[in-house]
Automatic annotation (TrEMBL):
Species: Candidatus Cellulosilyticum pullistercoris
Name used for this protein in its record: Beta-glucosidase
GO cellular component terms listed in the entry, alphabetical order: cytosol
UniProt xrefs under Pfam families: Glyco_hydro_1 (PF00232)
Enzyme class: hydrolase
Amino acid sequence: MGFSNNFVWGVATSSYQIEGAAYEDGKGLSIWDVYCTQPDRIFEGHHGEVACDHYHRYKEDVQLMKEMGIKAYRFSISWPRVLPKGIGEVNKAGLDFYDKLVDALIEANIEPYVTLFHWDLPYELHKRGGWMNPDSPSWFAEYTKVVVERLSDRVKNFITFNEPQCFIGFGYSQGRHAPGLKQSVRDTLAMAHNVLLAHGYSVKTIRKYAKGEVKIGFAPTGSMNYPCSERKEDIEAARHSIFDMPKEIREDWAWNVTWWSDPIFWGHYPQDGLKLFKDYLPKINEGDMEIISQPIDFLGQNIYTGKEVKADENGEAIYLTRNEGSPKTALSWPITPKALYWGPRFLYERYKKPIYITENGLSCHDVISVDGQVHDPNRIDFLHRYLREFKRAAEDGIEVAGYFQWSLLDNFEWHSGYAERFGIVFVDYQNQKRIIKDSGYWYKSVIETNGEIL
Ligand code: GCO
């Protein structure tokens, strides 16, 4: 026994990272379009103006997926492509693009999974205060309605937000992502509350306007720490290290699981967080938590790495130091396959919702070899080790619904620009030529056997 027969094998991307066509067909600017024009923000001044030119090459990209036997495609919609000012006038050409993409996917027998927000906030809304503005939840609901009315006759799976940890933390606390601000904890907590409300209103909107039965989830991230042994104490220490809020307020406060997921699944913020932030909390109106905790159908979790934990004599987590030369990706992220067993297990035990891994993968130093192919044994090895752990979770009764490899294509890796290659398809940015990497063919055989070969 391993993965269920209806297990979803997919790949993921996001709009700003692949689409390009930043100024075409009436698209409005996003905060990323603007941020990338600022000096010293992005590696070597890279930007997403062309990216993988997916806007023009989507048919070819769907064919590549078909060739690799991919069953589902998680992509995001560029809000300013659909609503150039964020609200109000709809850009027909922008909406048509997603309509055609969805048709092409269905034609190729690939299930679309639509992410509504993967960080490219309309710049016009940013100028009006972005997530600080108390109207932001209703802006997001308006945008949701436009998308759902157009696509939900064919799209059956929607994801509201991708990684609020990152776009709030990196974007507004640490200033490493668009819009590059360093705001106070008071401000970022207020934004977080609006984002959660936006999620809730979006869920209500999807349910109201969907043209058929749909499933809804959201896709947070976090460090999925795992125990160094099966000892109960180590397991509990690892669990706490994932779900406890930090003991002190830091600039990277947004990087946690429970401030985001507890309100959504349980309808309240975590007690330890409320205590920690008591002097900085935004006004929480009556009814807010009910809106935020609209029932959803699944938890998507982006999992890349975790820390190994041992319990000390008081049961507190000690993070084990890794050996010199321990395995890591090109981005220097530690390779920790057990994160894909313990992460889903801990999350399932806490929130009791089917789990999709909405992202998992790595950046490697891929090159085109003399034979014209792209050999990426490190990626195959990484995916193999992680997927084996994920399969073990399935075998232990964790309800795992699907897996989306990040990413279909090499693409614009935020502040690292095009320096990092996360794709199972290589992109030559000089001529936009695509080459399926060895890992793409390997993934195909995983899918064909529903994970038997792992
Ligand atoms: C992420 C983002 C992706 C990244 C990927 C690799 O959700 O952080 O969803 O856009 O490209 O995670 O860093």
